[in-house]
Amino acid sequence: MIPSGQVIYKLPMIALKEIAVQEFHSSLRGELIGPADAAYEEARKVFNAMIDRRPGLIVRCVDVADVISAVNFAREENLLLSVRGGGHGVPGFATNDDGLVIDLSRMKGIRVDPQGRTVRAQGGCTWGDVDHATHAFGLACPGGVVSTTGIGGLCLGGGIGHLTRPFGLACDNIISADVVTAEGKFVVANEKENGDLFWALRGGGGNFGIVISFEFRLHPVSTIYGGPIFWTLDRAAAAMKFYREFIARAPEDLNVIFAFMVVPPGEPFPEHLHNKNVAAAAVCYVGPMDKAEQVVRPLKEFGLPAFDGTGPLPFPLLQSGFDAIAPPGLHNYWKADFLLELSDDVVAEFVSCGAGVPNIFSGAHMFPVSGVAHRVGKNETAWSYRDANFSHVIFALDSDRAAMPGHTEWVRRHWDALHPYSAGGAYVNFLMDEGEDRVAASYPDNYQRLREVKRKYDPGNLFRMNQNIKPA
Ligand SMILES: Cc1cc2nc3c(=O)[nH]c(=O)nc-3n(C[C@H](O)[C@H](O)[C@H](O)COP(=O)(O)OP(=O)(O)OC[C@H]3O[C@@H](n4cnc5c(N)ncnc54)[C@H](O)[C@@H]3O)c2cc1C
Question: Which residue of 53, 82, 83 sits with most ligand 1 atoms within 8 Å of its CB, as the best mutation to test the pocket?
Fold first, then answer.
């Protein structure tokens, strides 16, 4: 036992006294984990294995009281503070060296209101948790394309996925949020209360407070018509040009993500395609089932696809379709940008990039940002790239750290070649830790207003382990 008053945690700004830690510990219902605890090694890990940080303390909050206590402790003790939802953020802001991590992963409460078509979900939920709960009622909320991603980081940064065209970004579907601010105050943010905070939360990331729970709008989505279509590389450029015209005219209830990937060696994919680089379309049609074949047919018939895996399937199955090739614990490197259009030059460069996807975990994705996502005004939410038509991301994942320099070079080379065609910035959730200018470029019209909201809710920049927006 360490005698009272003795220094036990050496932190950059301050030496924490045992008494302060004990007081904090006794205020909690959740677990407090330090470097000497058995749970520490697992608890400090995030999705991206490139991030190898050692926080001073990790608190696994179980309720709002724990979060308030932890925010107050971090502020009063001047600790570097990270907030962890699903831990998927590739730059690894959900952890830090020597500071405090507020881990929300134990807070998984969900309540669906089937009549009102809403769901209230706590900050520790993943999209898989939300899909599981809402699917029972034939409802769904727009999220991403991997079910293990946390709802918090994804929807606060925007949220692009299979339902973007039919129902907008994940952040467009936030109705209300319960938030703990940097002062340790509990506030509600929605159209009626704290409207400036509500505006900033919808795209501005984790800069403004810790969201305890989100209320989302739900949509009648149960069995969708979708799945993957593959083309061999010799047909990739023609397929991508066809996609460009097709998606521009497609009904909003059809979402198609264009991608380059390496076919996983297993069912349901034909053996001759195993481990081959292909162009792919990830299809999700949520309109009337009797129209599905007709709406999707042009894509299925174009250029003799090498594989057609589309058909009726439960939405959560599509939502978790990429999970097996997106496991945690691999080394990650990502680069991204918004695009206004897919010019012939962009197509040529993307195809060249796709031919070099190094393994089944890596890829180059072209997410459409259109349909309902375009009907929200540029300044209506913090997410301001409403005129971009696509958000691309090139990502390399590998279990072998030694392979990463080569993979990183592949990502960078193609991103460098595509960047001149960019709309200016990138989707904030696809950024690595790329500095202030890249963050500012993510919010061309809204950056100054975001800085002002930041000054109001977090003038001391307590929440700075994120794609940081500095207080005005
Ligand atoms: C495999 C994989 C697939 C992905 N697919 C998609 C996709 O299809 N579409 C898409 O849009 N994005 C996608 N992303 C990117 C994803 O949106 C971001 O990585 C997002 O930050 C993950 O959220 P998280 O809660 O899991 O991550 P965390 O690392 O836990 O959180 C990221 C940051 O968000 C903030 N944060 C999280 N929760 C809260 C909260 N409750 N209150 C306040 N701040 C909070 C914190 O600042 C934290 O540092 C994907 C990422 C991965 C790794």
Answer: 83
